[in-house]
Design goal:
Elements lengths: L4 H61 L2 E5 L4 E3 H10 L9 H17 L9 E8 L5 E8 L5 E8 L2 E8 L1
Antiparallel strand pairs: 1-2, 3-4, 3-6, 5-6
Helix pairs in contact: 2-3
Length: about 170
């Protein structure tokens, strides 16, 4: 049996073409695996940041409720949680100060110092609402900065009141 030169050349070219196709397929598979690994790292890092921010909001709410104000009852200076009740009942402090004004300035300062929103900062803005759970009335609202799509929120309930904070990133 005789094999012509033309058929040998044709066989070499077809084998060479098959080798190139297999090599190209292997390169595409390697690139796809690398992209999946990078995508996995990117998604896992974002989840841990969200949990940290939620923890920060919870901690901020709990600590701000325990902050001591300049409003005095008969024996001592009251905390923010007691000041909210005085403001809701429209009572006066024992040292004849308006609890709603003190709540406004104290909570405003705590929010500003705690979050410092701004266009060039990580926190773009915040919204806080303090409501009376018994009748659903709003006691105070605090709004600062820009509202964005990325945000985290938490709420704390105490003595018939609810304090809700949403932070925009």
């Amino acid at each position: 049996m005789r094999i012509s030169k033309d058929s040998c050349k044709l066989q070499k070219y077809s084998l060479k073409g098959q080798e190139e196709m297999v090599g190209f397929a292997l390169i595409m598979i390697i690139v796809a695996v690398i992209l999946l690994i990078f995508l996995g790292f990117a998604l896992s890092n974002k989840e841990s940041v969200v949990e940290e921010k939620d923890f920060q909001i919870t901690s901020f709410l709990e600590s701000s409720l325990q902050y001591t104000t300049e409003c005095k009852d008969n024996y001592e200076y009251v905390q923010v949680r007691d000041l909210i009740k005085l403001c809701s009942l429209q009572e006066r402090c024992a040292n004849d100060k308006d609890p709603c004004r003190i709540l406004n300035s104290t909570m405003g300062n705590l929010l500003w110092e705690g979050w410092k929103p701004g266009v060039d900062r990580p926190v773009k803005g915040y919204y806080m609402n303090i409501t009376n759970n018994k009748d659903g009335s709003s006691i105070k609202n605090f709004v600062m900065g820009n509202i964005t799509k990325t945000n985290n929120a938490d709420a704390s309930e105490f003595r018939g009141f609810r304090i809700y904070l949403k932070v925009y990133y």
